Amino acid sequence: MRDNRDDEDSFAALRDDDKxxxxxxxxxxAREAVPSWFVETGKNSYAWHNVDAExxxxxxxxxxxxxxxxxxRSETADIRALTFTSAHMSIELEVTEGSLLGQIIxxxxxxxxxxxxxxxxxxxxxxxxxxxxxxxxxxxxxxxRCRTPDGTDVLTGWITx
Amino acid sequence: MRDDxxxxxxxxxxxxGDQVAWDEIVERYAPLVYGICTRYxxxxxxxxxxxxxxxxxxxxxxxxxxxxxxxxxxxxxxTARECLRVVAAANKTELRRNExxxxxxxxxxxxxxxxxxxxxxxxxxxxxxxxxxxxCQQLLSMLISDPPSSYASIHDALGIxxxxxxxxxxxxxxxxxxSNAFLALGENETAGKVLGR
Lengths: 161, 197
Hints:
The structure holds 2 protein chains of 2 kinds. By secondary structure, chain A is of the alpha+beta class. Chain A has helices at residues 17-32, 36-44, 62-69, and strands spanning 54-61, 80-85, 90-95, 100-105, 110-116, 119-126, 131-134, 143-147, 153-156. Chain A has a domain at 52-156: Immunoglobulin-like (Sandwich). Chain A contains 3 helices and 9 strands, in the order H-H-E-H-E-E-E-E-E-E-E-E. In chain A, strand 8 and strand 9 (153-156) form a beta hairpin. Chain B is an all-alpha fold. In chain B, 74% of the residues lie in helices and 0% in strands. Chain B contains 9 helices and no strands. Chain B has helices at 5-15, 19-39, 44-61, 71-97, 109-131, 134-144, 151-158, 162-177, 180-190. The radius of gyration of chain B is 20 Å and the shape is globular. Mean pLDDT of chain B is 85; it is low at 99-103. Classes of the chains: A alpha+beta, B mainly alpha.
């Protein structure tokens, strides 16, 4: 299909010097509008390229609920609940002042690793009802990787407590 | 961009473990991903969340992209889906209390297609610009600055006689049209191949 339109948006319109210059201006400013931290995050993600695990995405975070509900339900404000979900496993986390507890769904035994930008900082076991504890609570951003004997291998997105 | 050899080559190299190729993919497509996030008026925190997720999904998905040329479409739909996830989470709390945000960009295929077309055109123009000699880049940069530079200040900055600025502008734009990236862009756009459907 040839583009015979010569309206504002068509490629053919770029034969005009003024329109080409304006389009170039837009292209360069679209790149400049992107903050450098956003680009850096993208580049740094490549460190996970050879990690052969399934990504579990954040599907629930009580944190935003708490901010809104703090005035009416202040008793919930000291526990944060997070859920990460992938096709083969969910990981539910409960964060309190002093601890980070979790459970994998469906429950089964396994191993749990805590990873930071520096690599694996801790490995712990998941018991037969799927529960685990991360102690001490990580200070920096981290990801959790859970492997079970049935071959499931799941890695959460970044978590900051 | 089925016929864009540069994108296909970048994906193949990144899949094989080349960080430089991955960085180029991020540089090329960060404006597409970021642009869609801003359509949804996400907070910086939410943009970070969506950005991290989209890039991690791409890292995981890279080997499975059967058609590397389908990358922009994959990125755009994945980003829109992640933005909707964040918006849906916010709807449960904040938006229910406040008036519905009229500015929220609700995704449809047409809006996504336009976003991809514009991002690909912009990426092609930036790549063509990068092929130009430094003096053309400097001149065109000054001409598109906002507010535009006067011919007198261009003369002061670049030493080009005022009477030559017009002809040099035309020559530099013509070089841009003859750049490899621009020619590839033209072939794809006029053949309707950008969306790969």
